[in-house]
Amino acid sequence: MATIELTTENFESHVKDDDILFVDFWASWCGPCQQFAPTYEAASESHPDVTFGSVNTEEQQELASAAGISSIPTLMAFREGILVFAQPGALPPAGLDQLIGAVKGLDMNDVRAQVAAQAEQPGDARG
Asked: Least crowded by CB within 10 Å, which of 8, 16, 43, 127?
């Protein structure tokens, strides 16, 4: 599966509808982004069961801002609509494959329980 372009118009629907979604936030002037692009594209072709999207931060400044992007490239991974990974920096091919495997292997019942537990905690429990 080829990498799809994500925009403010389609980002939320992909997060919600795609079982596993990886998102690469990049810009054309960013050297590390350009170096990571072939690795990301190759992974998208090797994992047809995963959706790979990219956000051009120059064209989608509002989306990049809403996602809290402060450094590029930044890679995010969503599973069943939950953000399960977000980290700036380009990964080598083996690192990206390892991350993809880890996201595929997540116990989503456990992840949802952790998200629910965090949501129930008060803002500052130190008293």
From this structure: 127
Q: Provide the 3-class DSSP secondary structure of residue 51.
A: strand
Is 9 an active-site residue?
A: no
Q: Which residue has the tokens 């979604």?
A: 21
The catalytic residue among 6, 21, 23, 33 is 33
Q: Is 72 a catalytic residue?
A: no
Q: Which residue in 23, 30, 64, 100 is the catalytic one?
A: 30
Domain extents for the chain?
Answer: 4-120
Q: Which CATH class is domain 4-120?
A: alpha beta
Strand partners, 87: 75
